[in-house]
Amino acid sequence: MPEIKVTPLGAGQDVGRSCILVSIGGKNIMLDCGMHMGYNDDRRFPDFSYITQNGRLTDFLDCVIISHFHLDHCGALPYMSEMVGYDGPIYMTHPTKAICPILLEDFRKITVDKKGETNFFTSQMIKDCMKKVIPLNLHQTVQVDDELEIKAYYAGHVLGAAMVHIKVGSESVVYTGDYNMTPDRHLGAAWIDKCRPDILISESTYATTIRDSKRCRERDFLKKVHESIERGGKVLIPVFALGRAQELCILLETFWERMNLKAPIYFSTGLTEKANHYYKLFITWTNQKIRKTFVQRNMFEFKHIKAFDRSYADNPGPMVVFATPGMLHAGQSLQIFKKWAGNEKNMVIMPGYCVQGTIGHKILNGQRKLEMEGRATLDVKLQVEYMSFSAHADAKGIMQLIRMAEPRNMLLVHGEAVKMEFLKGKIEQEFSIDCYMPANGETTTVTTNPSVPVDISLNLLKREMALGGPLPDPKKPRTMHGTLIMKENSLKLVSSEQALKELGLNEHQLRFTCHVQLQDPHSDADTLHRIYTHLKSVLKGYTIQHLPDGTVIVESIVIKVSSSTEDSNTKVLLLSWSYQDEDLGSFLSSLLKKGLPSGIC
Amino acid sequence: MAAHLKKRVYEEFSKVVQIPHEETPAKKLRLSKPSKSAALHIDLCKATNSTDALQYLLQFARKPVEAESVEGVVRILLEHYYKETDNSVRLKIASLLGLLSKTQGFSPDCIVDDAINTLSNEKSHQVLAQLLDTLLVIGTQLPESPALRLRLVEVAYKHLSDTYFGVRNKCLQLLGCLGMVDAPVGKENEGPGTSLGGLRDVQSIISDYFGDQDPRVRTAALKAMVGKPCNPPCTACRLLTDDYEQVRSAAVQMVWVLSQLYPESIVPIPSSNEEIRLVDDAFGKISHMVSDGSWMVRVQAAKTLGSMLQVSPHFLEQTLDKKLMSDLRRKRTAHERAKELFASGEFSSGRKWADDAPKEKLDTNTVNLIASGACGAFVHGLEDEMFEVRIAAVEALCHLARSSPSFAEKCLDFLVDMFNDEIEEVRLQSIHVLREISTHITLREDQLDTVLAVLEDSSRDIREALHELLCYTNVSTKECIQLALLELLKNLNKYPTDRNSVWKCLKFLGSRHPTLVLPLVPELLSTHPYFDTPEPDMDDPAYIAVLVLVFNAAKSCPTMPALFSDHTFRHYAYLRDSLSHLVPPLRLPGRKQVYGLDSVDSGPGSGSVESAQLFLQQSLNRVSTIQNLEASGAQDLLDLTIRDLQRLGELQTELAGAADFCATYLRCQLLLMKALQEKLWNMAVPLCLKQNVTATAAAQQILEETYKLEFLYSGLESRQVATIHHVRLQAKALQLVLTARTRQGLDLLIGSCERFLQDVESFQRLFLTELPHLQDSFVDKLLELMPRLSSCKPVELVKILQTTLRQSGLLQLRLPEQIHRATATIIEPTGESDNPLRFTSGLVVALDIDATLEHVQDPQNTVKVQVLYPDGQSHVIHPKPGDFRKPGPHRHRLITQVYLSHTAWTEPSQIEVRLLLAYSSSSTSLTSPSKLGWSESLESLPAAEAAVEGTIPFSKAVKVFIMPKPARR
């Protein structure tokens, strides 16, 4: 039986460093090639030596597919392609291809320039790597080679995030990447058709969460910002550069527009500006509202949001500032925070999760006195708010996607093992399909039951149609006679005559003969005649002939009579039939064995 | 440029030449029976190849065919059909047969046999499908013949096994339309239907095709099944999970139909031994479809949910159910948290991180991730990606909430959440919905807070919808009132144009919650127990707003005036006079002598309406005695009554329409009477030219007034319309008589006499049922004389008319129940601005117009904007249908832009803008032009006889200062 093998190199019962190997129909595919944020050593990247100990990966991989531009999904790409060595095709969507190099470059800068690491990929490597990328469009079927085809579906999550449907012959796998089943202010919801893949590989970040309506969260957020602005306070929103930042920008921008507010909103410059540019371009990847209104006005051309300059932080009056990084551990956001922390009118809104040890984490836990470097302390008087905006599917969303795609097997990645366990149980219970959750390096094997396509000759089909009922009934299988020819990797069902002709074979006749003893006092000719009349009465609708040479022929069955040598009363009947008339022949023999009824003359 | 212009000129010139050229073929319209079919026959014979034939057929299809010639045409077509070898031509012929059998007055049963015969010989599947379609048309045309239906059903059954999906589709349609199985039909089948081996009942045949391999056939099967009463089939439910969206959509419809037919039948729940009502089961199944993959299905499912009102409350409440969890711990929703916070007396803390931290641990077995039944359907629908789905969900919520107060209470939070949607349409819709269900609910303080936040929205529609909502809202505490007032004042400050709307809103808020306002009064009016406070500025809109709130509350709270300070009373007097629609009459102690007149005059409450009604009726009765009076006395009486009625209309807004209507009618009568009593009638013809002018003017005016009467008022019954037409007829008679007296042209006179007689006839035709009420009237007398009139000479006719006119008395006017005058008020431009609108001459400037229309029917087609320039030029602009909004019943709002342009002026000057109500007498005439045949071409339509079109100005003109500057070179 054919098998599909899935091996996560990263993201198996874990979040970060997504990298999943899939072998399907003799093809090897790598899904995502990410890095782990938590490590600074070799564990940062997936262990490519699993694929091959030495040498390049090109011979072992047919293609690499990147689902979206987050570094935990594409961070290791230049390392893999340039340093380990891979020259095959890399697929990603257009927005991902555009934004991915910006993030990689930023990542490289921080690692090499700031932390001073060596033996890291260079700018040139990023460029070389991006040259190998082939862009994908939504719902476009791309033929990687003759057998392997891939198709992208919309996944929400971030701009350009895609789910991929990978198909070899009749076997298929869907990889979701990260996705979001509820639409937000700038992205739509993930959607997939009923493609019934053999395996659905899904992320499970929020496997044990069912979220509240986003509207309440949004309203809370807006209300807090609005109140603070009305009081004349300043609002600081530390964000990571891409994804949620744009979401919040759109949210505030539309709110400002709706409520006719005048207070300025600033966005700290840097790579976000470049990224915003791409957001403007890829309108087709956004949600309904932005897509519909961009003709009048592109929503990403912000009217109220302006670039931030360091000096603005001291300006009087209310303002809102988006600044990086998101956890207040360094950079601009921290500088602004220090300036504003002393005034209770001001506010800081943490839109994401904060790692322990960062200032963000401390203030969220209610610490009001912070120790800064140089023994200075900082009194935190401003209000601290927490607002979670996450673009992953929750448990219900995952279930909804399973319902949409109707997979035969389920495989969970990109989540914590405990949470996966719960979801796995639920999936098995609700859909009664198998669900797997391999750890990193562990291989899951799924046997498939592929359908084998067979060409049938039209003549044969028509002939069979003419014999049977008027319509093929999908509910009832039907048997038909034909010859299966396997030739050059293809299967054909043809009529036997045509098969003989095609293969240049002679037809062999196969006849069955049998003797039946019969007690009958009449002469041979009479007996034969009696048999003839008997059969005539029994078999109506068949052609029965009595030939002058002393045989009775029923269809292709020949019946002859001869007297036994010992006893003239015992007649020996010779029956002979071809194998096509097997049914009739065996019926006749059993009929004649019972003897002739007496009433026949 | 010049060359270009020249070219343009030539182009237009050549167009002018073409027009008579085009008209010539229209003349050869000779519709005699043989020619039609013969022409077709000749055409078809001429056709050498199939494309030609197709062309002829297409041409033929554009023209209508009379009922009597249809049969001939059908024969010709069939003849060609048999001969024709090309599929497409046969297809066209088949479709033509279908079209022809729809011709009114033609009974298609004669072609059934032929159609069925052709069916059996046809090889092409497309043509077969078309023929079946034709049969379907024939079948629907002849619903009364069971034998035919049986035959058609038989035919359909025979072709059901076709391999082409289109044929199967049509067969199923046929079965669906015609195979209505009443029980006896099934038995009749056995007689003629032996060939079928006993026709199985139609439902089971159709339901066999639920499993067809083609999704289109499955859809057709489901649609055919809809509308057939049948037992609940699980097969339809199975199709809810079909791969194709059209099938799923049809299945949703099917399930809905079933649930409406047998809401109470009991169905078992699979995999358990419980049983539930069918409507509940269906509700659950359709709820499930709200999270379907296709948004079309989602929209349909959401809409459908709204119409399932019989569902049990338990299921209904499930639709809003959501259980949150975080990391396997139970979490409370924001709604629940808000409620708890409110209950604990703390208001909106939410400052802490992890304030929403999950509390108790959940048992993994109890968590239900897949929504079973109706669970969370609306939670899904309201968060959907497509706004169409969200709107459908909001509307469905509205329908369900209106029929179930407890559900209304529950869905409140969700609707309030929708105020924050990104699409304005959705926000607006949810505000409207909340208004509609507001009778069932009382807003909590935190909810009100969220609602009020929307008041700052920059969209005027949203704000006004919200004001409207607040008018109908019940709130629970005095803090709520204070909050609302505060936010409204903020709104007023930010958007001063909302003044009227805010005041109105406060008026209702006050009169709804007098007891809640009472404790706030000292604070609101900033009075102090010991000190006199400064008198606030009377012109401050905010202060007026507060006063409106207080006065309206005081109306049903007699203790409140005691809290007023002196200047408040003065302000009351002022406001009562200037803003009488916002400030109610109050019974103020000790001040009765001052305000007594006012409050007694219009009286409190509904009693006054009744007395006014009585007064109105009495006035009308009094007028009816007019015949017995002397001419001058009668005129005086009419004058007096008209004045009374006008005043009454001003005082009693409820009766304004009726009073106005009567006054206008009486004015017509007065004019008529005056015209008839002129001395000119006694004078010799040549001498009376001068006097004639006034009488002619009167006749003209009466005519205009009758159009106003007919089209400006809504709620008229046909009796009133008849009365109006009667007056119009009188006016026309008067005109005729006058023409006869002035001009000597006999031809002209004959023409107008004929026209008049036609008018009389059409009057008779239109108001046949009303004639008994018109006894002893002008028309009655005329109709008696009709035979004589139509034969006599014009001069004689005029004489008769003259005498009849003078003899006929006043027709008693009977008032209908509800009668309203269409009115329009232009809110913007206000006409107060002294700054001229400057623009370059030759270019356009857009002028914003904002107007409210009351009691206008179909404003999209009737309301126009007229712009009058100082040089007498007038432009009539037809606003787009999208510019009209409907904020309430009988109320429309026009927000549009008109484009002005003019050549340069030296001085700024004023233009006038007013609204017009367009009418056309043919639109209301009871004989609407019936559709001609199957072709919708209008060329053969006779010009509507005497369709009078015109416009009535129905708003005050507003002056706008504009200044077109000469273009700078």
Automatic annotation (TrEMBL), chain A:
It holds the Pfam family RMMBL. It is found in: Cytoplasm; Nucleus. Residues 245-363 form the Beta-Casp domain. CDD domains: INTS11-like_MBL-fold. Its cofactor is Zn(2+). The keyword Nucleus applies. Gene3D superfamilies: 3.40.50.10890, Ribonuclease Z/Hydroxyacylglutathione hydrolase-like. Residues 16-229 form the Metallo-beta-lactamase domain. GO terms for biological process: snRNA processing. Keywords: Cytoplasm, Hydrolase, Metal-binding, Nucleus, Zinc. GO terms for molecular function: hydrolase activity; metal ion binding; RNA endonuclease activity. InterPro entries: Beta_Casp, INTS11-like_MBL-fold, IntS11_C, MBL, Metallo-B-lactamas, RibonucZ/Hydroxyglut_hydro, RMMBL. Belongs to the metallo-beta-lactamase superfamily. RNA-metabolizing metallo-beta-lactamase-like family. INTS11 subfamily. This is Integrator complex subunit 11. The gene is INTS11.
UniProtKB/TrEMBL annotation, chain B:
Keywords: Cytoplasm, Nucleus, Repeat. One of its GO terms (biological process) is snRNA processing. InterPro entries: ARM-like, ARM-type_fold, INTS4_8HBD, INTS4_C. Residues 614-816 form the INTS4 8 helical bundle domain. It comes from the Eukaryota. It is found in: Cytoplasm; Nucleus. Residues 825-966 form the Integrator complex subunit 4/Protein SIEL C-terminal Ig-like domain. Belongs to the Integrator subunit 4 family. This is Integrator complex subunit 4. The lineage of its organism: Eukaryota, Metazoa, Chordata, Craniata, Vertebrata.
